[in-house]
Write a structure and sequence with these properties.
Strand order of the largest sheet: 2-1-3-6
Helix content: 10-25%
Strand content: 25-35%
Radius of gyration: 16 Å
Number of helices: 1
Number of strands: 6
Oligomer: single chain
């Protein structure tokens, strides 16, 4: 059985972005969710192994400087997925989940 494979070119920027997040993931501590201010897992905002319903609320791990700023995140969780909500402190609005050992970046 033969398979047809089409190679798609990968730009230098895409390769660098993947490398940035791969490097961040490789250096991340197991059990933590990481947030980054910039694309491609750069501009470290913080890491946390628990939950924080309001990154700008002044309580919990993330403080005012992290509110509505994360452009990329990674989850090196060992037991849990991470769920992100659009609404602050309300657990409502749009939401997305990030699986264990995953990252979301541009």
């Amino acid at each position: 059985m033969a398979a047809l494979v089409t190679a798609l070119p990968v730009s230098t920027a895409q390769a660098a972005a993947a490398a940035d997040c791969d490097n961040a993931f490789a250096g991340a501590d197991a059990g933590f969710m990481y947030a980054y201010d910039n694309r491609n897992c750069t501009g470290f905002l913080g890491k946390y192994a628990g939950w924080d319903s309001n990154w700008g609320g002044g309580i919990g791990h993330y403080q005012t400087s992290a509110s509505n700023k994360a452009s990329s995140v990674l989850n090196k969780g060992t037991t849990l997925e991470v769920q992100f909500f659009n609404g602050t402190s309300t657990w409502t609005g749009g939401q997305t989940c990030l699986s264990r050992q995953g990252s979301l970046h541009d």
